[in-house]
Write a structure and sequence with these properties.
CATH superfamily: P-loop containing nucleotide triphosphate hydrolases
Strand order of the largest sheet: 2-3-4-1-5-6
Order of helices and strands: HEHEEHHEEE
CATH architecture: 3-Layer(aba) Sandwich
Number of strands: 6
Oligomer: single chain
Shape: globular
Number of helices: 4
Largest sheet: 6 strands, mixed
CATH topology: Rossmann fold
Number of domains: 1
Radius of gyration: 14 Å
Helix content: 25-40%
């Protein structure tokens, strides 16, 4: 747990002004775990920072900055219409931090300044995080 929290803190220190972060990686690589650690590092109560798999989106509020954070898990989406029905584009345009799992399902409507984050599982079971700035 300490390693992931340290990695999340380091990631936060390197974050730029962009507000949309697209997290890529295979099932089980740790996207949700890392985003939960990011949310905790941003001041979100640990009990709240969990997977939105069934809700598609979770809204968090930082206890330290009052900043809104949206965590999307798009894995269960079957059509683009489903995401548009929840107002996905409004979330992207609202200025809040948006952390998106399975962004491949909506890449055609992601903003040009989306930061792509890829998490890879290494042979020794450690993870590598690759950040591609827009």
């Amino acid at each position: 747990m300490a390693d992931i929290d340290a990695a999340a803190q380091q990631f936060l220190e390197l974050m730029c002004d962009e507000t949309v972060y697209a997290f890529h990686g295979e099932m089980g690589v740790g996207k949700t775990t890392f985003i939960s650690a990011l949310a905790r590092a941003l001041g979100v109560d640990a009990e709240e920072a969990n997977s939105p798999s069934f809700a598609i989106v979770n809204e968090y509020r930082s206890e330290t900055t009052a900043e809104l954070i949206y965590h999307f898990d798009l894995y269960r989406l079957e059509t683009m219409e489903e995401i548009l029905d929840i107002g996905f584009e409004d979330y992207l345009d609202c200025g809040a931090l948006c952390l998106i799992e399975w962004p491949e399902k909506v890449e055609d409507i992601l903003p040009n300044d989306t930061v792509d984050v890829t998490i890879r599982l290494n042979d020794d079971h450690s993870r590598t995080i690759i950040v591609a700035q827009p």
